[in-house]
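agent: user wants the structure for Radical SAM protein from Marinilabilia rubra. delegating to structure tool.
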Amino acid sequence: MTFYTLLRLHQRIKSRRLKLLGLLAASKFGLRHLSIRIDPVLGCNLACRMCSFSSAEFRKKQKGALTKEEMEGIARVLFPRSFQLMVGCGAEPTKHPGYLELFKLAKKYGVPDIGIVTNGQTLKRHDIEVMKETGVREITLSVHGVKKGTYEKFMTGASYEKFLEVMANIKQIREQSGDKKKPAIRINYTVNSENLEELKDFFEVFRQLPVDVLQIRPIMDIGGKYRKQLTEDLIPKYNETIRILEEECGQRNIRLLANTMDASYDKPNHDSDIAGLVYTYISPKTAGQLDVNWQQSSFSEYRKSDKWIPQLWKVFLRKNSEGNGLDKSLKYEDLS
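agent: tool returned. relaying tokens verbatim.
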């Protein structure tokens, strides 16, 4: 079972309480029901203009890295209950010299869906080969411009040529292994008023790249230097661009994820608190925040610390979501 399978299932099941009861049952019977999102290190090698890491003040506050022993403890406690591990959740995971160890641990504990979110600028061929060997299903690369000038403008410190080199390495490794679909490539493109126009040319420029999933996100204000959301007059152009990409993705058998229902992020997300019970964020600060010791704690002790059960019942008794940090980030549909 993959994230996309669960996303389709989530979209089909309309009852919030049925979803919550399913989560409770999975937890009670020791089934995999968590999506673990790990930042092994709090830092980034770039200063992308739409990202909070473009703020010098924010960067100063982001410190810390997981030790090898902490990674092993996190894996022992959480990975047997996880259907997905995603390495990288805002920070850049490849800044951690031992980040590949997380993939080896995920394989050891049988996590079915393993992935990484990265800007790709420090990915070496060896890293990709290790990901292939350890069963990484998907590499998500941030790409915020189709043309070199736009790409390097919004991904401050990045090299367009390095991005193309990484994509070429992935393609070659897949072809040499005989499995041309793994690891899959997911492109995460955050749309603003300056990079919207060239988005329609995505497949004309990148027609040779081994893209499997294209994810389009209208810009959100997350504290970056560039915060201009799409204006109302640009929404029709944005929707038309998505329509063009939907047709082209269909012709190429590429999955398209996009926000077409609320590009301005004005509407509440009624399932964000349910997603908050599934998505489990771990960083170098988590142990201190929850007062847990990864090397010694059990899953039940962790569960008591993060108050998951009381939170589930609180959500169950509410009629609608009250929203959380996932309220905007989860607003996309599978248009495949």
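agent: one observation worth passing along. The beta strands are 34-38, 82-87, 113-118, 138-142, 184-191, 213-218, 255-258, 279-282, 333-334.
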